[in-house]
Amino acid sequence: FSKAVRKKQAKYVLYGLVAGYANAWVGHFVFEKNKPASFKQPFYSFISDWRMLSDVATGRLSLIDRKHDKIPS
Question: Contact 30/38 with Cβ under 8 angstroms?
Fold first, then answer.
């Protein structure tokens, strides 16, 4: 994705955004049974997705069980 941005290949940037939002929407509709924020607040939703990815990557947010989270609820 970042390589596509640096090389200004718009179609690959678009593919990356669509793939990311598609996964988020499936998660919201199928598993959480709610509407994603990306319909009403797309920018806030986009930033929040990256924030959550950062928290998972640094170990602050657990994908196994919430009791392992290092972020206050």
Answer: no
Query: Residues near 16 by Cβ (< 8 Å), separated by ≥ 6?
Result: 1, 4
- What pTM does this model have? 0.56
Nearest to 49 by CA among 72, 16, 10: 16
Q: What is the DSSP string of 31-46?
A: II-S--GGGT-HHHHH
Q: Where are the alpha helices (DSSP H) in the chain?
A: 2-6, 10-26, 42-57
Structure-block tokens of residue 25: 């929407």
pLDDT tens digits for 12-35? Answer: 778 877 887 888 888 889 988 988
